[in-house]
Amino acid sequence: MSIMFISWCFVGFISLPQFQVLVNAQGTYSRGVYSDVVKIGGLFDGNDATEEAAFKHAVERFNSESAALRRFAFNAQFERVLPENSYDASAKVCSMLKGGVAAVFGPQTHESASHVQSICDAYEMPHVETKWDYRIRKENYLINLHPHPSTLSRAINDLVEAFAWDKYVIIYEDEDSLFKLQDLIKGSVPPRRNAILKLLPPSQDCRGIFREILRASDIRKILIDCDARKLENILKQAQQIGIMTYKFSFIITSLDLHTVDLNHFKYSEANITSFRMVDPEKPETQSLLREWASLTLNSDLATVSHGRGNYFVGDQSGGSSRRNVYIPGFSMEYETSHAIMIRTDIALIYDAVQLLGKALHILNQTIDVKSLDCDSSDTWQHGYSIINYMKMVQMQGLTGLVHFNTSGFRTDVSFDVIQLKEQGLTKIGAWDSKFVAKFNWTKLDVSEAEQDESAMDLRNRTLVVTTFMTDPMTMWTRSDAPLQGNARYEGFAVDLLHRLSLMLGFKYIVKPVNDGKYGKLDKEKGEWDGMIREIMDGVADIVVADLTVNKERQEAVDFTMPFMNLGISILYVVPSAKPPSLFSFMLPFSLDVWYYMAFSFFGVSVILFILARVTPYEWDNPHPCIEDPDELHNQFTFLNSFWFTIGSIMQQGSDIAPKAVSTRMIAGIWWFFTLIMVSSYTANLATFLIVQDLDVSIRSLEDLPKQTKAKYGCVDTGTTAAFFRNSPFPTHQEIWRKMVEMNKKHKVFMKKNSEGLKRVAEGEGNYAFFMESTAIEYNVERNCKLSQVGGPLDSKGYAVALKKGSKYRQAFSSGILRLQEQGVLDELKRKWWKEQRKENQCPAGGDSDSVKPLRLANVGGVFVVLIGGCIIAAVFAFTEFFWQSRQLAADDGVSVMEEMMKELKFALACRGGTKQVYKKSSSVSDNDNGTER
User: Fold this and answer.
1) What integer pLDDT is reported at residue 692 of this predicted model?
2) I need a surface site. Which of 51, 483, 489, 736 has the fewest CB within 10 A?
3) Which pLDDT score is estimated for 856?
4) Are residues 523 and 760 in contact, defined by beta-carbon separation less than 8 angstroms?
5) Are 784 and 880 within one domain?
6) For residue 27, which of 53, 45, 62 has the smallest C-alpha distance?
7) What integer is the mean pLDDT of 734-754?
8) Which domain of life is it from (predicted)?
């Protein structure tokens, strides 16, 4: 019987009595020792029982692990939905919500998942997905454990760049594949890279494509993006056509290559490379695989091959016969050295259940699920808290570190780089999204014996090392005493060289490059200069310096694996603080709040005025001595009502006190309102007066061509200028064109980095400079005026250069790898970038020991309001003065000017606080008693 990998089959698993003991088909669960049972729901495609079985087992596994640690258990409820049937999915999720669940998992199809997400979002129900989704959706109640599409796209592109593929064929399955390959396609622009796209035929017959590749003598590299279940058939077709040989290289984008039967291709010598998220050697993975095997293997199925040896499941029959084992979601093989392998989507389901469990554990409160009716508008009050805790949790799962960015996407992931060898799929490296480095190659292309032999040849040999004098790589040692030999130099490169010499046993002599150049090819003469030339001529044995690896230099010399990774970035000044607004005292409240407050002030004043006139208890006898007065007086006139409310909000008295219950009620509510508003305003006022916004004109590369304040440039010769000059991207081309135009008038190109540094520091935001990120980091640490804008624009590395074909290359690469694994390279970078030769310490933040005094600019608006108020008050006073003088002049029969001068003279005399009451000259008869008054 032929050996088979059968990770995509599912045979009778749900009917197994062993599993029914754990979780029955109805999803019920015995409370046991748990104080709470939290129901969770799973929606699974009807044609794939594997995910459903994995979900149920993941729940039971979580419950068994958490029995002693947590106060709750999960109860798995699940439904099968018809693929791509949104109506069925909507009905099933509504039924699930009505039963009350804490989260909904799945389904896997795009159309069904979109409808489920819409419903979950409407009712504030956490929705957990584990599928690859090309749509970049930021939803409030959605979390997806699958690596973000942009991250996976970047990893594929980085792998192609690491292998230096220049011309290749991309075989893709459907239009969705193009989203996964978008970074690769964008970068595949001649002459840098040339990619030929081929759509996988519906019949999955690729032999015609492979025949075209075989006839094309210049294409030897193929990238295949399709479902893992189709890979074995496609690779067999390639083998039939004759391209499964050492001359051809394949990159498989699927994360499930490890579940495919590759026995037919192990000895073909073809280079087949892919990524893997699940590490089969992790104890957690091995434990899970044994649990699955124990549930599915019959007693006569004995040996499961695992790595270097075997472990046994059930009873070993002792017979010679072997049978293939069908475990859903896994691939297993007998009589080979392969391990049982778990599908990535299955591992993600396990991690998703664990993630929800950890989030609920951290939340640490009783979760009461609620029955939600899709015909009502009720929502679940715990949903928002749970989904946010899930986004904050960090944990180690089967798929590595599970961590989400601020948008809820899983962008920080790492992949194993695996390659098919005669012994099977072997890990040759790792890719991590957090590092510009992209790859750590852990397996080398030569045997260990060859490595040991090259290392032995190095022992006691004296190597001449050429370097370039640049901070902080190689610098002159600061010393009052004269120094000789290698003691004259210090820096990162010198320390790295010293560590390698101790590890590999060689001696060395350091010498600066004679012509002071890194190494550039004169294409007219076909000659190199700088350190590259010294290596080629045998003047030096190796280069240890900040020498960038590029394709042109790789044709002249050999490079080790990079010891430092970097990219081109933007050097700019630290943003200066914007001048404070004149009316910054209004900033604690937004403009609409000020509008609402003004409206409230006016409205309450009018209401108070009306209520005071309606209620009888605000009408008082103006003369208490008269028991039966002819008229009553009301203190809440229209103006007094406004004066009362404004006095309250200004925290001042008004000498007006309400008497009726109604007016006291509205006064009390207004006082409460003013208490909250004034307290809120006071609490925020200090922050808004002291903290100032930064004037940031450049935030990213895209901002450069849009703004006119700052000119920008780079060193006129070198890799940075070449990067922009040869880049296929429109933004880079526009920046290069503008730099060339600006250089005609403003000289934006520099001869060396130090000139650019000086101009940026002295330019006060009028100049930005492109240079390597490592140099920017070093100078930013030492000059508090400088800062780095954005991240690296490209990815490259510094490496040790040796003569072409040098047998020491592998020994040096192994040494650098060991230093990297031991953390020595990070230690050296921290030493020379952040600690050594750092005279000035830039402040990390505001000074907590002292408070900066407020300047006039911070409170100038208050003075403006004060002056404005005084002017308005004066205008009103003189208006009243004029109006009164006009009336008096009419009564006395004198001119208005004469009356005004008389009154003004009295007012400005400032004599006492009394004034004679004006009385008319004519007498008025009293109708009651006929007397004159």
Assistant:
1) 60
2) 483
3) 59
4) no
5) no
6) 53
7) 84
8) Eukaryota
Residues 204 and 93 in one domain: no
Both 483 and 404 in a single domain?
no
Burial call 48-85: b when 16+ CB within 10 Å, e when fewer: bbbbbbbbbbbbbbbbeebeeebebbbbbbbbbbbbeb
Name residue, tokens 């590395």.
797
Residue 111 lies in a domain: yes
d(CA 144, CA 132): 8
Is the N-terminal amide bond of 705 cis, ω within 30° of 0?
no
pLDDT, tens only, 178-230: 888 888 887 766 655 788 899 999 888 999 999 999 888 788 899 999 999 89
763 in a domain, yes or no? yes
- Indicate if 49 and 126 belong to the same structural domain: yes
Q: Which residue has the higher pLDDT, 48 or 843?
A: 48
221 and 160 together in one domain: yes
Tell me the β-bridge partners of 429: 417, 441
Q: Is the predicted pLDDT of residue 516 greater than 70, yes or no? A: yes
Can you give the pLDDT at residue 695? 57
CA 741 to chain centre: 36
| Locus of tokens 């780089």 | 417
State both tokens at 618: 């605000």
User: Are 765 and 577 a contacting pair, CB within 8 Å?
Assistant: no
Cis peptide before 126 (omega within 30 of 0): no
Angle between helices 207-215 and 231-241 (to 10 degrees): 40
Q: How far is CA 605 from CA 600, 624, 633, 873, 921, in A?
A: 8, 28, 19, 21, 42
Residue with tokens 């820096």: 491
Helix axes 591-614, 661-690, angle to 10 degrees: 160
Question: Would you say 789 and 573 are in contact if contact means Cβ atoms under 8 Å apart?
Answer: no
CATH code, 370: 3.40.50.2300
Contact 428, 162 (CB under 8 A): no
Given pLDDT bands bounded at 50, 70 and 90, which one contains residue 281? confident
The SS3 of residue 21 is helix
Highest mean pLDDT (candidates 454-468, 626-640, 814-828): 814-828
Provide the domain limits for residue 185: 156-276+416-428
The DSSP output letter for 774 is H
Per-residue tokens: 195: 């990619």
Q: Are 324 and 386 in contact (CB under 8 A)?
A: no
Name the 3-class secondary structure at 434.
coil
Q: Cα–Cα distance between 490 and 863 in angstroms, integer? A: 59
| Burial class of residue 270 in the structure, from the number of CB atoms within 10 Å of its CB (0-12 exposed, 13-18 middle, 19+ buried) | buried
Per DSSP, 470 falls in state: B
Question: Among 355-369, 448-462, 465-479, 503-517, which stretch is predicted with the lowest mean pLDDT?
Answer: 448-462
pLDDT at residue 27 above 50? no
Inter-residue contact 198 to 172 (CB < 8 Å): yes
Q: Do residue 124 and residue 217 come from a single domain? A: no
The neighbour count for residue 37, using CB atoms within 10 Å, is 17
Q: Is the pLDDT of residue 880 over 80?
A: no
pLDDT for the residue 352? 93
H/E run at residue 669: helix 661-690
CA distances to 12, 56, 330, 782, 795 from 80, rounded to whole Å, are 16, 13, 21, 62, 46
The predicted pLDDT at position 853 comes to 58
The rounded distance, in Å, linking the Cα atoms of 160 and 223 is: 9
Residues 656 and 630 in one domain: yes
Residue where a domain terminates, one of 640, 675, 690: 690
Nearest-angstrom CA–CA distance, 742 and 731 = 16
